[in-house]
Amino acid sequence: MPAVALREAFEGKAHVLTPDLPLHPHDAIRLIRDICDTEKPDVLVGNSCGAFYAQMISPIVGIPALLGNPHFKMSDFLRERIGSHQYKSPRADGKQDFTIGEYLVSEFEELEAHQFDCCNIYNKDRVWGLFGEEDTLAHFEPLFLKHYMNSHHFPGGHTPTAEQFKTWYCPLIEKLLLDYPITEDRVRYFQHFKGNKYKLIASAFDSETQERMVLYQALYGDRKFWIRPEKMFFEQIERNGKQASYPKHLACRSTFGIRITSLDHKVLDNPMEQCAIIITLLRQFNEIVAMGWSLVVKANHNVAQHGLNLNFHKLS
């Protein structure tokens, strides 16, 4: 019901993806990550078990999330329901039957033990919880508030009706989209706990093990590129007796701009030559970028004739 209501509410406004998730949690997370890689969504929305997944994925992919009645102890829920069942909503593949067994319970237990490992300060206000006041299945608002800041309520049960979804979920989704827009290039910056800054380039896979890896670049020295297992890159570490993110996610806090109105008084119609000029300018501003200012270039169709805007965003 929530998936149908979501598509109807945003019809003509946004492209909504509501995939049927696999039964096994690792397969479900893998599918969501693949969708994030290919479709590049602007917000994650999940209810119950879907919210359990969204909470773990949101800080890694850097996308805000709305968690509806998140069930952070799916193993307990499933253990009481071992046996054969049917999905309530029609599945695209037509397979409505599924079985809950001890192995499935163990898979969820394994994930639950580490579900908040990637939660970080940057993401605390970008993951919102929505809790039904008549929910009799999941009561995890106190646990949610140990890690996140924004908690909301609605007068409904664990699974919202279509009307409740449109009335309470959709406005929060729209507000998340407005408050935390994703940058066009989707580049993110991090600061190591020792102080150095890095730019996250992409998520990749180890060709032998298929493990998720992170490709990132140092923003100091010779600006080398590095690869690290994703789990290690986003993990929590103990420092001075406290838990902290291995790299701290940086947010853009301030900006300044420079407009260059003349480039050697040349009128260049060749796009390749214009690109060469831009590259030269970027090298000239290398020291500014290395000090923690990210650079966004906005050029007119003819750079030499109309000028070039260089916008710097301070990371903090």
Structure description:
By secondary structure, the chain is of the alpha+beta class. It has three domains: 2-179, Alpha/Beta hydrolase fold, catalytic domain (Rossmann fold, 3-Layer(aba) Sandwich); 188-241, DUF1653-like domain (SH3 type barrels, Roll), CATH 2.30.30.320; 252-315. Helices cover 33% and strands 28% of the residues. The protein has eleven helices and 16 strands. Strands 10-9-8-7-13 form a five-stranded antiparallel β-sheet. A four-stranded parallel β-sheet has the order 1-2-5-6, sandwiched between helices. Helix 1 packs across helix 7 (162-179). The longest helix is centred in the middle third of the chain and has 18 residues, at 162-179. The two termini are 41 Å apart. The model is unreliable at 252-268 and 287-307 (pLDDT under 50).
